[in-house]
Design goal:
Helices cover about 10% and strands about 25% of the residues. It is built from 1 helix and 5 strands; from the N terminus they run E-E-E-E-E-H. The termini are far apart. The structure holds zinc ion.
Length: about 70
């Protein structure tokens, strides 16, 4: 995986499913596996454990154009 300079987020992964599992990967960020559901109207979801952001491929351009996820 390479870094994408267009994405201003700690870690972002483009996925092809709306339901994905995150366990934080290897190393210090590892955490119990959780299932994340990407809201279809939003197109992305953020893992509450490791802050990793998952963007659905169908929404990638849309999300990036909006400047990514606006934190509320
Ligand atoms: Zn995670």
């Amino acid at each position: 995986m390479s870094q994408n300079p267009e994405i201003d987020a700690p870690e972002t992964e483009v996925v092809s499913q709306y339901r994905i599992a995150c366990d934080g990967g290897d190393g210090a960020l590892g955490h119990p596996r959780v299932w994340l559901q990407i809201p279809q109207d939003l197109g992305w979801v953020e893992c509450g454990y490791c802050d990793k952001r998952y963007i659905h491929a169908d929404h990638e351009q849309e999300v990036l154009r909006k400047g990514g996820a606006e934190r509320t």
